[in-house]
Design a protein that fits this description.
Length: 167
Amino acid sequence: MTFSDLNIRYRNPIPEDGQKVWKLIRDAGTLDLNSAYCYLLLSDYYRDTCVIAEDGHEIAGFLSSFYSPREERTLFVWQIAVADAYRKRGIGKAMLSHLLDREIHRKMVYLEATVSPANIASDRLFQSMARDQAVSVQITSGYKAQLFPEQKHEDEPLYRIGPFSSY
Ligand code: 9YT
């Protein structure tokens, strides 16, 4: 498959996507797998802050996010996943652009996410987005490894990107 063969459609999720998303995250490797119920809730209640990248009936990618309950203009991007066969084709970046083009995100001033050292694709994506928009990326300690029950969980440094000009 070459880049030109791809005809990816970007859309809001629906509850019927939940289990495919769960499988995508399970197979993605670098992400924390949540319950199938969690992906169902995201695909339903959080549909306006989530994106599905779809190639025909195949889910090529998923992005989840929500507004911070403490800072209403800060969007926390929870997970960005692209299926193995679709990587290195700009799908992560396209999902993020599709998300931010939605009307409701005009109020966004900061974007936050935690990015573990193994999550190279998300690091590159956020750094390149900040460069494109000429905003800064502040990285602080976020969630340290010892906060997780698994022995081998990495640190999750917090990226805070912005300020974006809201309108
Ligand atoms: C941006 C992104 O995908 N972060 C992942 C955070 C965490 N490791 C998770 O939920 O998988």
